[in-house]
Amino acid sequence: MYWERVTEEIFVFTSERYALVNAVAFLTQSGVVVIDGLPFPDEARTIARFLEAQGGGRFSTIFLTHYHMDHVYGLHAFPSHLDVISSRRCREMLLEVGERSLEEARRHDPQFEEVTLRIPTITFEEALTVETPDKHFRLMPLPGHTPDNIGIFYEEERILVAGDAMMAIPIIADGDWREEIETLQRIKKLAPETIIQGHGEVVLRGEVQHVIDRYIAYLECIEGEARKVLRKGQPRESIRDIPLERCGLERVPLGIASHALHTANILRIYDTLKEEAEGTAE
Ligand SMILES: [Zn+2]
After folding, report:
1. CA nearest 33: which of 78, 91, 89?
2. How many other C-beta atoms are found inside a 10 Å radius of the C-beta of residue 250?
3. pTM above 0.85?
4. How far apart are the CA of 164 and the centre of ligand 1, in A?
5. What is d(CA 21, CA 237) in angstroms, rounded to the nearest whole number?
6. What is the pLDDT of residues 91-107, one digit of tens each?
7. 2-205 under CATH 3.20.20.70, yes or no
8. β partners of residue 62
């Protein structure tokens, strides 16, 4: 795990052991605001100890961007009295699948024995503003990667913590690519100065618009690839041969099987388009 300081009061923690997933912390006058936790208990404990020292022992709130386990598990390391704020959908999804996937994780790796799920205690649907004496956080739905994903916009410095709406390879295999394109367009219009992605590097001033355009172009490109396979009646399996580079992204920005993530994206689009075509043919 490594960490960087985005400003004097904002830290980003990155797990090299799991897809460069990020956790974020803001030092505020009401204590530390934590956004997401890293998946592994030892990393989570290190972060919690570090932030306890940085914040003089005071924590304020936890924000959770979405229900995926690589963002949820580490929250167990923070004081249990803290509220966890998320979208309503995120809470529902955690209640639905959370315990089951945690059991599964424990079966594969006993280190997850010490994890207990933090179920969100405050939820919202359209928008929510959370204030500390010195900072304003605007929470907003940013669906697409998953239906429950939210962003946290820190107004004073125009920094967006985007959850997995922004990641080094957009992943929509568990979501909806059309929704993700709309979300990216919305982020573009919001015009943040800095974006802290769910996975991968912080996107800095000057790169923001360009990176978003590249992600949108990638999603449009893979939709085109899925349509091509459908139109030509090629076998579904042929999608596994479509290289990532064809859609303008490079391999391994996440240090994991980027080709597999990429083809899972196209398979998802292919299946959705096929279903829609069959639905209208009836
Ligand atoms: Zn995710």
Report:
1. 78
2. 10
3. yes
4. 5
5. 29
6. 999 999 999 999 999 99
7. no
8. 34, 84
